[in-house]
Specification:
By secondary structure, this protein is mainly alpha-helical. Helices cover 48% and strands 10% of the residues.
Length: 90
């Protein structure tokens, strides 16, 4: 469980009964991961992915919201900084 620190509940989480922490919703998170992979692969657009997510989970998300999730995910996948070389000579 994550501690809640904003008024917006992120996609893939729900508010727990104590209204202070967030609980994962596995169905939403697995659907989100599939959609992210599909958008990155070019199988469908952001808006198409949002429509699929809404149909599968019943929860709304904007195209820009999905883009932010994908961009944030891309940043955490790639290490950056002086100590993160990818077999390249600097």
């Amino acid at each position: 469980m994550k501690r809640r620190n904003s008024s917006t509940i992120p996609f893939g989480y729900k508010l727990s009964e104590d209204n202070k922490t967030l609980e994962k919703v596995d169905k939403e998170l697995s659907a989100l991961n599939e959609i992210k992979d599909g958008v990155k692969a070019g199988a469908f657009s952001l808006r198409g992915g949002v429509e699929i997510l809404q149909h599968q989970t019943g929860r709304k998300l904007s195209a820009m919201g999905l883009k932010k999730i994908i961009d944030r995910d891309d940043l955490t996948d790639k290490p950056t900084g002086l100590l993160s070389r990818d077999d390249e000579t600097v």
